[in-house]
Design brief:
heterodimer; A: 279 residues; alpha+beta; 5-stranded antiparallel sheet; 3-stranded antiparallel sheet; 7 helices; 32% helix; B: 278 residues; 6-stranded antiparallel sheet; 9 helices; 13 strands
């Protein structure tokens, strides 16, 4: 079984936004001559369970994934839950090609040492594309200009950075309103402990009063979409649980078929939370 | 001609629904319950039916309008969420009170009534059976939902957020009453102060508007509202980037995407549970 990936480095500095990366490096010198591939060629893109998103992604992603907040030190971050485990096989099959914006920009990432801003440095995640489907493209052309594949992904990062300002402000305002409560996505599936920690949802009772009037007055339609689609998206948790059960059942079946040659999933997951490493 | 009577009058008969769901193909729109709107929006376009100047919120289920078929080729339900309105078929309850036997009506000549086979409508003592009691609960849910939706739908009418649901050049109607859907472009143009006013007392009107907008992905593309802004001018403001549902439509639905997993049966899913419809 593939060891689950972590998308949040445990040594991330306080206040920084954790983004999908393993070994981000500066875009300079020989790095600029490397080739990049389609996002799904990279294991972190395929397997990441929890991915930061921005408000304009809600309408598309709410059809498949719970859209909630995750506590990160003193801040809360708006995220999509693609699966209960960092493994593509635990995602709904029909949604495996539906990527959050940030994953479309991969392997380019923001500098993890500082909060995302519109002028945040872009970096390259120094990873091996383990499943390329084509020959890829170089980051720069022979004329030392950024290739189209590069500028296209940079534009996605620009859009993410631009929209993350409002997204983060709405998240902070919700935290200040004290309407967020823990969402315990924690299961024991056939002896395998699965947990995504630090998730937050809006307390259902908060929708009954006029708590959000001032917030909507400040942030308008983006805020309305985040709140409304957050509620709608929570129903997708049932599908993710079903997929996680299927995942473990298939792993067990494969192990049985191999005559116990493979490590049973319980030995891997029983004592280790599966999913992103707690902040 | 259809002659609806209280079930008390046919209590000696049994309900014998067919093994397939092809009867659903005869329907265009059904009313919705407030408890199911968040879940139903994932599978059905939400539409407003205006009857005697009174708006009612419901779901479009007409086969020709839906992006994904509800039934397989043999007429069997494919597994999407089954809304309350369908679970009440073939009964009606225009005025719901406390007596299932008199509140719930059915066509006296319904083909789904049988003297011999099917589910009994009353028990041995002549009291409402389990099925009838559950139906009564569902009809009450729908009535409460329509009452709670009323103010929100009025706000949409005042704000010009609704547009006729059009098939070609023809407005679509259900039982002769026109259907309306939300105009996402107009909603996207709403001023912050307008949204704040909508949410002054509770979040319902904003909540339902978002669900309506989200639900439009379930319409075939040719039936989705055109990009019409506040002044009826096309192209005033594009749909939000998130409204591009092409990717979703291109993905085939997996069979187990329906609510086949009982979230209510998982005690550690308390938070999810609170959102589950009754």
């Amino acid at each position: 079984m593939e060891v689950p990936h972590s998308i949040v480095p445990s040594d991330a500095p306080p206040g920084s936004t954790p983004l999908l990366f393993e070994h981000p490096i500066a875009l300079e010198k020989d790095v600029l001559r490397r080739r990049i591939y389609a996002p799904l060629a990279y294991a972190p893109v395929r397997n990441a369970a929890v991915v930061p998103i921005v408000h304009t992604e809600c309408l598309t992603l709410a059809s498949w994934f719970p859209l909630v907040w995750q506590r990160r030190q003193a801040t809360v971050e708006f995220v999509a839950i693609r699966a209960l485990l960092n493994d593509q096989r635990a995602q709904p099959p029909a949604a495996r090609a539906l990527l959050p914006l940030l994953l479309y920009a991969y392997p380019f990432v923001f500098d993890p040492r500082q909060p995302v801003r519109t002028d945040s440095p872009r970096m390259l995640d120094d990873v091996f594309a383990d499943a390329p489907t084509d020959i890829g493209a170089s980051i720069t052309t022979v004329h030392r200009k950024l290739a189209r594949a590069t500028t296209g992904r940079f534009r996605l990062l620009d859009r993410f950075a631009h929209e993350s300002v409002v997204t983060a402000a709405i998240g902070s305002a919700l935290a200040e309103l004290d309407v967020l409560e823990p969402w315990p996505l924690k299961f024991d599936i056939g002896g395998n402990r699965v947990e995504i920690p630090d998730l937050l949802v809006i307390r259902p009772s908060a929708f009954e009063g006029g708590h959000f009037s001032r917030l909507l007055g400040s942030y308008g339609v983006p805020c309305a979409r985040m709140l409304g689609l957050h509620r709608i998206s929570l129903f997708r948790a049932g599908v993710l649980l079903g997929m996680a059960k299927t995942f473990f059942r298939d792993i067990q079946a494969a192990a049985d078929e191999a005559g116990g040659q493979q490590t049973p999933p319980s030995a891997i997951a029983a004592d280790t939370p599966v999913g992103p490493v707690p902040s | 001609m259809t002659r609806f009577v209280p079930v008390r009058e046919i209590a000696h008969l049994r309900l014998a629904l067919p093994p397939h769901d092809r009867w659903i193909d005869e329907l265009t729109w059904i009313p919705a319950s407030a408890t199911e709107i968040h879940l139903a929006a994932r599978y059905y376009p939400i539409a407003v039916r205006i009857e005697d100047q009174k708006p009612r919120l419901g779901l479009i289920i007409g086969r020709r309008y839906l992006a994904r078929a509800l039934l397989d080729p043999t007429g069997v339900w494919r597994g999407a969420y089954r809304p309350v309105g369908l679970r009440c078929f073939p009964f009606e309850a225009p005025d719901i009170g406390d007596n299932p036997l008199s509140d719930i009506l059915i066509d006296a000549d319904s083909e789904y009534l049988s003297p011999m086979s099917g589910t009994p409508i009353v028990d041995e003592a002549g009291r409402p059976g389990r099925m009838l009691t559950e139906l009564h609960r569902l009809f009450k849910l729908m009535k409460r939902g329509q009452e709670s939706f009323g103010r929100a739908l009025d706000q949409y009418l005042v704000g010009g957020l609704l547009v006729p649901f059009i098939d070609g050049d023809t407005p679509v109607a259900d039982h002769g009453q026109p259907l309306y859907i939300i105009n996402p472009a107009r909603f996207a143009q709403m001023e912050h102060t307008g949204l704040a006013a909508m949410a002054r007392h509770d979040f319902l009107s904003v909540d339902v508007a978002i669900a309506c907008q989200f639900s439009l992905q379930n319409l075939r593309p040719e039936y989705r509202p055109k990009d019409t802004g506040r002044h009826g001018r096309p192209g005033v403001e594009p749909f939000s980037p998130g409204m591009d549902t092409t990717m979703i439509d291109d993905l085939s639905l997996v069979l187990d995407d329906g609510e086949l997993i009982s979230v209510a049966g998982i005690d550690i899913m308390r938070s999810v549970n609170r959102h589950e419809p009754a």
